[in-house]
Each structure stands twice: as structure tokens, then as C-alpha cells.
Design goal:
By secondary structure, this protein is mostly helical. 61% of the residues lie in helices and 3% in strands. It is built from 19 helices and eight strands. It has a two-stranded antiparallel ribbon with strand order 1-2. A hairpin with a 2-residue loop joins strand 3 and strand 4.
């Protein structure tokens, strides 16, 4: 044992101290899976399924981000011709026969905004983030061979893929995809005749998201069961890494909240197809009254946001867990306040269920009820602030490695602080009257939920890429990706706060007819240019990702980051079953860095006599 680095032999320790679950005697790793389709397509190996979620999420991220570039072009340069994009968008670009100028059709603009929100929130930041890292890390960090039910795990991905196919198909309908907003508020979503995009596109949208919810529920049940039942010997709840705590609570949130959304979808389908009036009442179309009476669109808002607000934390909690792990590993310090971090995750999970109506301050709810939601909205900032304080304290006086995973983790903390602070304004019902449905709201939730969650995802991808592919991503390209994304994201969304304070409304196709908004033309152009630059950086990331799978620097040691968690004790090329022999036994918590002059002590290293004496004294 040297002064600053603990030396050990994994094979010897696993053989002497490991836990024999007899799995390897029967399964023999991946040797029985020689078929390409069984191995890479219909795989039941959690690591392959994690890659499937990740790559599918990346495809959707490019589609969703590409949509945002198209509608930003409309907002930033409404007078410019878009004829050049007509080969891609077809009839949705109207070309003036006289001038030859091509303009984006208004109804397609709203379809782009709707699909952008749906894709990024559900398919990328829910399935892509949680599906990837929950699948990859829960068995590896808990010392399990696989998920509790590998078959359900496979089904979880394929229901997501089915949802993706249906949603993708809806983009090519002659009437266009659904265009009533990603929240799908009635009556636009409840009446097929309400708009062009409320017809078949909306029906496919509902079908797609219903299958998506099935995927989330199958995955969530699996994650919860695995955490509770398949932890290796010695892995108590209080020895789990914070990543696992975050994924565990995220799965519980999804299990409790997504079925509520499906109930709303079911009632929407009934209103659309069976003539019911759950969400419709006193609707007039072209002067004629519809027979629907007695329904309430506010009921749908309650059902949607009862999922919608836990959904915010379903997105951000996995990123928080990933960032906690990455900061600790690359600062070479124990995470500060481990139990406080766990309790803050639990508090956020609980409080997320009693703040949903802060999205509805302007919907006519009783002001007394609004005050209740104001109080709890502000209270939920407390556990979030605990996490921020602990991240900063973990960094304080750390031996920080400013590599790409660490840069994105620090960037996450920056985004979470700046975006979270603006949420305090919107959480106040009086101030929300001015800010509601302006660009201030767009700026707030894009920074705190969108960009921050992406930063957490990027930190995780760069950090665990060697575990997924036994190679490293290019560090130089990674740092270029970080700096362009960090500066560009602030350039895109920070100016939107000023637009919102000035009262510029969101979701408008064009501001040309509003003289009061002429002063913001240059700012809108600046935002659009910044968005294009940020999108280019994400294309660079995708190139780096796929190039590195085959050509990246090879991993030569099992634990390149010198981390303490169990996933780095598996072989470099990990087969199905993760560990070739015995499972590791856990003897300590997940963050023994810089202890007694030793750089790091992995969880499976037995306690010394001195440590046993210290534990006994406590």
C-alpha cells in the first residue's frame, strides 16, 4: 500500500471475499448468445438495453433540436425566404409565385413547437436519460448480475421504440403532426375538427405516449425491484451511491404519476371519438354550438400537471445523481453531506406531488388554493439548495480534474442555480400574472430542466462511456463541445428573461404585426444565431460519440477514473452477468476518497483493523 494510492487485486479479493450466487455456474456469461439479433436487438442484457435507450434518445434529440432551429429561423428572420428548406418540409413551406419567397406555414410552426416539446421532454430527457443510466448503473453499482426481470427490461425498450415509430410516423401525415402544444390542452386536443393538427396527428400522439407510459412503468417496476431485492452482500441502502438513490426515487415518481396522465389521455380519447364531455362544455365552431356540456378543461390541466410537475424531477433527479457521482470522483473528495443529499432527494420526490397547480395560477383556481401551492413551491427550493450547497462544498479544496465529465458536471451546477433562481419569481402567484406565458417561462424551464438535464446526461456519457464501449471519447472534442454549449446555452436563454419581463408572449408565430415588439428584432436574431451554433456543437458531440465507439482510445485498465463504486470492478469487456466469478461484497460506503492519505478505497475492499475499531466506537 503506497502513501496516496491503494493497490489491490480485484480477482484475488473477489475470489476470497466475493459473494457466490451460483449464477455463473449456470449461465456462463454471454457464451450462449451467439446470434446477432439476440445479442444486440432483442437483448436482455441491461448494458445493451442502456445503449439502445441512449442511441434512440440521441436520434430523437437531433430531430427535436432540429425542429427548434426551424422555428427559431421563423422567429429570428421572419422576412427571409425559407425556400431552401422546402425539399425537407415540402408543402409546409409556402412559396410565393411572384417573389419566390418561401415562408413557413403557421399551422406547421405550431406543430414544430408541439413536437419539439414532446420529443425533448419525454423521448430524450425521460427515456434517453433515465432509461440509459438506470439500466446501465443500477445492476453494476449494486453488485447484481442484471435487472430483476431482464425480459420486462427488454419490453420496456421496445415499447419505447414502438412509441417512437408511431410519433415519427405522425410527422409525415398530410395534415401534419399534432399542433396543440406539448401539454395537449383541450379543446384543441379534444376536438378533431378544431385545427388541422388536431386530427389524425393528435390520435397518433395519444397512442404514442400511451405506449411510452407502458415503457416507463415496466422500467420503473424493474428498477425499484432490483434496488430493493438484488443488492449484493453488504450493500445496505446507506452504502448505495447517490446515483442509485436518484434512479430509485425517479422510478417511484414515474410509477405514481404517469398513470394519472394516461387517465387524462383515456378521457381525451373518449371526448374525441365517443361524444363524451369530460373536458368540453359550451364549445362553438363557426357559430354552431356543439352538444358537449358539463365538462371542464381545468380537470385536464390538473391531471396533466399532476404528472407534469413530478415529470420535471423525473428528468432532473437522474442528472443530480450523475453529477453527485462525477463531482466526487473528479474532485477526489467524498461527497459532502451524503445523508443530507439522500434526504433532499426524498424530500424533492415527496414535495413534487403537491406543487402541480403552480402551473395553473392563471386558470381561475381559487386564490387561497394558489397560496397553498406558492408555499410548497418555495419550500421545494430548500432541498434543492441543500444539494447545490453540498456540490459546491464537495468541490471546495478538491483536487479537481477539469476533464470533460467534470466540466459538464460543474456546468450542470451553474445551470441549476441560475435557472432555479428564476423559478422563485414564477412560483409567486402575484408575479406569475405578469410573467405567465411569456418568454420568461421559456427561459426558466429550458435552463433549469432542459439544458441542466442535458449537462447531467453529457457528464454521465463522457464518464461512463469507457464502461459502455471500453474506449474513451475524444477529450479535445469534448471540451470544445462543452464550451460552445455552455456559452451558447446562456446566449440563447438568458436574453429570453428580458423578453419575458417586457411581456413578449411565447408560442407566437410572428411579431411583425406588433409595433411594440419591433425593438426586440435584433435580440431574436441573436438568439437564433446562438441556437444554430449550439446545435452545431451537438452534431460535433454525435460525431465524437460514434467515432469513439470504434476508433476511440482503448481502455487499458478496469478503473481508469480511480473510482470507488462497483461498476469499475467488472472486466473491461463485460459479458452478460457482469462479473465472471463471485459477486463483490461491499464493506464501506461509496465515497472513500482521500482517506488517511490514501487516494481512493473501493467499496469492495475490506475494512482495516483500525477502521473496524473506529466503526465499533461509533
Amino acid at each position: 500500500m503506497a502513501n496516496d494510492v491503494l493497490t489491490y487485486d480485484d480477482e484475488v479479493i473477489l475470489e476470497e471475499q466475493g459473494f457466490d450466487d451460483h449464477f455463473h455456474e449456470h449461465e456462463h456469461g454471454d457464451h450462449f448468445k451467439s446470434n446477432f439479433v439476440n445479442h444486440y436487438v432483442f437483448s436482455m442484457d441491461h448494458k445493451i438495453i442502456a445503449r439502445q435507450f441512449l442511441i434512440t434518445g440521441m436520434v430523437w434529440a437531433l430531430i427535436g433540436a432540429g425542429m427548434s432551429i426551424i422555428f427559431r429561423l421563423q422567429l429570428g428572420f421572419p422576412e427571409e425566404s425559407l425556400t431552401w428548406i422546402k425539399p425537407l418540409l415540402g408543402k409546409w413551406i409556402a412559396v410565393d409565385a411572384t417573389t419566390g419567397i418561401g415562408t413557413l406555414m403557421p399551422e406547421f410552426y405550431y406543430a414544430l413547437v408541439t413536437m419539439h416539446g414532446t420529443i425533448i421532454v419525454f423521448f430524450v430527457l425521460t427515456a434517453g436519460l433515465s432509461g440509459t443510466f438506470s439500466n446501465l448503473l443500477i445492476p453494476l453499482q449494486l453488485g447484481a448480475r442484471d435487472m430483476a426481470s431482464p425480459f420486462l427490461n427488454m419490453l420496456s425498450y421496445w415499447f419505447f421504440f414502438l412509441a417512437s415509430v408511431i410519433m415519427f410516423y405522425s410527422l409525415f401525415l398530410s395534415t401534419g403532426p399534432f399542433s396543440g402544444g406539448w401539454t395537449a390542452y383541450p379543446p384543441l386536443s379534444a376536438l378533431p375538427q378544431a385545427s388541422t393538427g388536431s386530427g389524425t396527428g393528435m390520435t397518433l400522439w395519444l397512442m404514442s405516449l400511451t405506449f411510452f407510459v407502458v415503457s416507463v412503468l415496466l422500467g420503473g417496476i424493474n428498477y425499484i425491484t432490483t434496488v430493493l431485492n438484488l443488492r449484493t452482500k453488504g450493500m445496505s441502502l446507506w452504502r448505495m451511491p447517490l446515483t442509485i438513490w436518484a434512479f430509485f426515487v425517479t422510478a417511484i415518481l414515474g410509477l405514481l404519476s404517469f398513470p394519472v396522465l394516461v387517465s387524462g389521455f383515456f378521457m381525451l380519447i373518449c371526448d374525441r371519438m365517443l361524444g363524451t364531455s369530460f373536458f368540453l362544455s359550451e364549445i362553438f365552431i363557426e357559430g354552431a354550438a356543439l352538444p358537449n356540456v358539463g365538462g371542464s378543461p381545468i380537470l385536464y390541466q390538473h391531471l396533466f400537471w399532476f404528472l407534469g410537475h413530478p415529470e420535471v424531477y423525473i428528468i432532473i433527479l437522474p442528472a443530480m445523481g450523475i453529477v453527485s457521482e462525477v463531482l466526487s470522483v473528479h474532485a477526489r473528495k467524498p461527497i459532502f453531506g451524503y445523508k443530507a443529499m439522500v434526504f433532499s432527494i426524498l424530500a424533492i420526490g415527496f414535495l413534487s406531488f403537491i406543487v402541480w397547480a403552480h402551473h395553473m395560477f392563471m386558470s381561475g383556481v381559487n386564490p387561497f388554493i394558489s397560496n397553498f401551492f406558492v408555499v410548497f413551491t418555495l419550500i421545494i427550493a430548500v432541498p434543492s439548495a441543500v444539494k447545490v450547497f453540498n456540490w459546491i462544498t464537495t468541490l471546495y479544496k478538491g483536487n479537481i480534474r477539469l476533464n470533460t465529465p467534470m466540466l459538464f458536471a460543474i456546468g450542470f451546477v451553474s445551470m441549476f442555480i441560475s435557472g432555479g433562481l428564476t423559478g422563485i419569481f414564477l412560483g409567486n402567484s402575484a408575479i406569475d400574472i405578469q410573467m405567465h406565458d411569456t418568454y420568461f417561462v421559456v427561459a426558466h424551464f429550458h435552463i433549469v430542466m432542459g439544458v441542466a438535464a442535458f449537462f447531467g446526461m453529457f457528464a454521465g456519457i463522457y464518464h461512463w462511456f469507457p464502461k459502455m464501449y471500453a474506449r474513451f471519447m475524444n477529450e479535445t472534442l469534448g471540451k470544445i463541445h462543452f464550451w460552445i454549449t455552455m456559452i451558447g446555452a446562456y446566449a440563447v436563454f438568458w436574453p429570453m428573461h428580458y423578453l419575458g419581463i417586457a411581456g413578449v408572449p411565447r408560442r407566437y408565430y410572428s411579431f411583425n404585426t406588433f409595433n411594440s415588439f419591433d425593438d426586440f428584432t435584433a435580440l431574436n436574431q441573436f438568439i437564433t444565431i446562438a441556437a444554430i451554433v449550439v446545435f452545431a456543437a451537438q452534431v460535433l458531440f454525435v460525431i465524437n460519440f460514434f467515432y469513439s465507439i470504434w476508433k476511440g482510445k482503448k481502455m487499458t485498465t478496469k478503473n481508469p477514473w480511480k473510482a470507488t463504486t462497483l461498476e469499475w470492478t467488472t472486466p473491461i469487456h463485460t459479458g452478460h452477468g457482469n462479473w465472471e466469478g463471485n459477486l463483490p461484497v461491499v464493506h464501506r460506503w461509496a465515497y472513500d476518497y482521500g482517506k488517511d492519505g490514501i487516494d481512493y478505497v473501493p467499496q469492495h475492499i475490506p475494512l482495516t483493523e483500525e477502521e473496524k475499531a473506529q466503526e465499533g466506537s461509533h
